[in-house]
Amino acid sequence: MILLDTNVVVAFLNGDNLILKNIKDEINRIALSSLVVAELDYGAKVSHRAKENLERLYRFIDVVQVVPFDIECAKIFGTIKSKLRSIGKPTGEVDALIAGTSMAYKATLATATESISKILKG
Predict the structure, then answer these.
(1) What are phi and psi of 110, to 5 degrees?
(2) In this structure, what CATH number is given to the domain that contains residue 22?
(3) Which residues have C-beta within 8 Å of that of residue 31, sequence separation ≥ 6?
(4) What is the CA radius of gyration of the chain?
(5) Number of domains the chain is built from
(6) Could you give the angle at which helices 34-45 and 50-61 cross, rounded to 10 degrees?
(7) Which own/partner contact pairs does 112-116 have at CB distance under 8 Å and 24+ positions apart?
(8) pLDDT for residue 4
């Protein structure tokens, strides 16, 4: 499973050709966290083209798997936040929640930012 971070989906929805190709090539393995859906829904609703952006977003969501944030994700989130804090690299709440989801589902997190799991392993 490849779990897409919010920034990757935004680039895809904005027409990034490389991301579009990669998603098309891996569409059967692509998933979104329900937390990413929440961020994307909010972003679309506050955009200048809310109706159009919401339609594009939910067309995409109709063809990919959406995984919930559950108790296992919550436990891993706590581990991530505490470890990052202990090494002086705190991260945002939602980023850690999404990373926890990715780790709980043993998914590869595709993001345009530094991987939290790499920081933890480093």
Answers:
(1) -95, 115
(2) 3.40.50.1010
(3) 1, 2, 3, 4, 64, 65, 66, 67, 105, 107
(4) 15
(5) 1
(6) 160
(7) 112/5, 112/7, 112/8, 112/11, 113/5, 113/7, 116/80, 116/84, 116/91
(8) 95
- pLDDT tens-place string over residues 70-104: 999 999 999 999 999 999 988 889 999 999 999 99
Read off the pTM: 0.86
Q: Which residue has the tokens 């998603």?
A: 23
- In 3D, which of 109, 101, 105, 77 has the Cα closest to residue 91? 77
pLDDT at 116: 44
CA distance 53 to 79: 35
Structural domain harbouring 9: 2-121
Chain mean position to CA 60: 14
Q: Are the beta carbons of 2 and 12 closer than 8 angstroms?
A: no
